[in-house]
Specification:
The chain contains 22 helices and 15 strands. By secondary structure, it is α/β, with parallel strands linked by helices. A five-stranded parallel beta sheet has the order 6-3-2-7-10, with helices on both faces. It has a three-stranded mixed beta sheet with strand order 5-4-13, sandwiched between helices. The protein has a three-stranded mixed beta sheet with strand order 11-14-15, covered by helices on one side. Helix 10 packs across helix 15. 47% of the residues are buried. The model has no long low-confidence stretch (mean pLDDT 96).
């Protein structure tokens, strides 16, 4: 029988399961983190657990927080297991499990009073976020903060009882300023270019609605370092819970499964102090820009390249997509001919070698990452992961055939039916709208590219529009497999 994960049961777990080597009773919260999901627990929390195991940084433990309805259910799971998490790392040849203990508390979601008071606690010196690419209230058409979003307007009107992450941060900073407490650093851990700048724009933009003086103080005094984060971390389901129980003897309500690879590059801008994460592999740099471009365009863009053809061909898992010669060939050609050539150089890094590593990671059969997860939320991901590469190539007068095909595949996917006739369940916050536009684009392809919030000026470029229209016509006439063969010349 598997052993239920609790602090009391740690010494009862199988000997091959690593457990914290530090006294968790001696930890104290120094980081308040919004968005305690799978990626955070496989990434930031693991780095901190490694640091704590070295006997360092014990005053930098994590206090969780959230604002979504789902966060309340998550908190209950974590509380039942004393804030512990099972992390299962997998590659093609091995699988190992560890229990991490870097989180020491999780504030009740919706309790703005308690969250704001904790944000004002001098012990909290970093506020970090993993709230997904779509959680930053960005106007996709302009890339600017959307101050007109109803949730932001509501927080601006009632700054004392905020509902959003950014409203809570503003309220916490206001209280610290009033008490003369040094402000915390705000650290985004989401896959967004210049995520620190984006976060600052959101916090300052919201503060402006109720207190312009406070907004100016935040702009001038608060640090928002940019960072690049990387670790493939699929969603948790019954499969993962069964593996944790059957292979590692752990009954965990929400284990995390991830690849063995991880990377974190951060700008070293933490006026209130930071944990010594360089001891456990975090790379601190003056400018994260080249690293984030590399990761977002090669890895996240690569995910988009394989996602939609695989989804249209009813392929369930990412490693299965990578085993399909047409999908793999499509990925290789688009990466080497269109994405990598327009990337700036990265210090001490070969982009070719980085891509080879990405291909190996995508093909990992143990990770169980799903094609559907990669297809999720294209309306927020395409403008960040794909469109910038198109824009750079157009600016250079270079071809965009492969990237146009990727866009056509996304359009065809959003029609809601795979090549076999199988229904594709809604897979985007704006799914209803995307379906309407995709149906219109079947006869008038320009309808798809007219979504300014996704494509902006790129959607008006004649070369891109012509290539997109041609590929969409082939997808409807010949199907995905034949269209990929045409693109690959096979």
């Amino acid at each position: 029988m598997p052993t239920r994960l609790t602090a009391q049961n740690l010494d009862r777990l199988p000997k091959d399961v690593a457990v914290p080597r530090y006294d968790r009773a001696r930890l104290s919260g120094g980081i308040l983190h919004f968005g305690v999901g799978n990626f955070h627990r496989a990434h930031q929390a693991v780095y901190l657990d490694d640091l704590f195991n070295l006997g360092s940084g014990h005053d930098w433990a994590i206090v969780g927080a959230g604002v979504l309805d789902a966060d309340a259910a998550a908190r209950e799971k974590f509380e039942r297991q004393d804030w512990l998490t099972t992390v299962v790392e997998q590659d093609a040849t091995r699988m190992s499990a560890r229990v991490t203990g870097a989180m020491v508390d999780y504030l009740k979601p919706g309790d703005a009073t308690a969250i704001i008071e904790k944000l004002a606690d001098p012990a909290i010196r970093i506020v970090s976020l993993t709230i997904t690419e779509g959680g930053y209230f960005i106007d996709p058409a302009t890339g600017a903060f959307n101050a007109a979003h109803p949730a932001i307007v509501a927080d601006g009107a009632r700054p004392g009882s905020p509902k959003t992450v950014f409203g809570l941060i503003v309220a916490g900073l206001k209280r610290r300023r009033a008490r003369g407490v040094q402000p915390f650093t705000v650290m985004s851990c989401d896959n967004i270019p210049h995520n620190g700048v984006v976060t600052r724009n959101a916090v300052v933009g919201l503060a402006k609605l109720s207190d312009p003086t406070l907004a100016g103080w935040i702009r001038n005094e608060i640090a928002f370092p940019n960072g690049m984060v990387d670790r493939i971390t699929p969603a948790t389901g019954e499969r993962e819970r069964h593996i944790a129980a059957d292979q590692f003897g752990i009954e965990d309500e929400w284990p995390v499964f991830c690849e063995t690879f991880r990377q974190w590059v951060l700008e070293d801008n933490f006026p209130a102090g930071r944990p010594a994460l360089e001891k456990v592999g975090v790379q601190f740099v003056l400018d994260v820009t080249p690293y984030e471009h590399m990761k977002i365009r090669i890895l996240n863009g690569g995910h988009a390249v394989i996602a939609y053809p695989a989804g249209l061909m009813d392929i369930e898992f990412v490693h299965e997509a990578m085993a399909h010669p047409l999908v793999l060939g499509f990925l290789r050609k688009v990466e080497h001919e269109e994405i990598i050539p327009v990337l700036p150089p990265v210090p001490n890094t070969s982009l070719t070698d980085y891509y080879a590593l990405i291909e190996e990671r995508f093909a990992n059969p143990k990770i169980g990452d799903t094609v559907r997860r990669l297809c999720l939320d294209g309306s927020n991901r395409q403008p960040k992961f794909i469109v910038p590469s198109i824009a750079d190539r157009l600016a250079r007068g270079e071809g965009v055939s492969g990237l146009a095909l990727e866009s056509a595949l996304w359009c065809r996917y959003c029609y809601g039916v795979s090549d076999s006739g199988r229904e594709i369940a809604p897979n985007d916050p704006g799914w209803d709208r995307l379906q309407v536009v995709s149906h219109a684009a079947r006869s008038e392809p320009s309808a798809w590219l007219s979504m300014d919030d996704v494509y902006g000026a790129v959607g008006e470029a004649p070369a891109f529009r012509a290539s997109f229209a041609e590929w969409l016509r082939h997808l409807w006439t010949d199907g995905t497999e034949a269209t990929l063969r045409r693109y690959l010349g096979s």
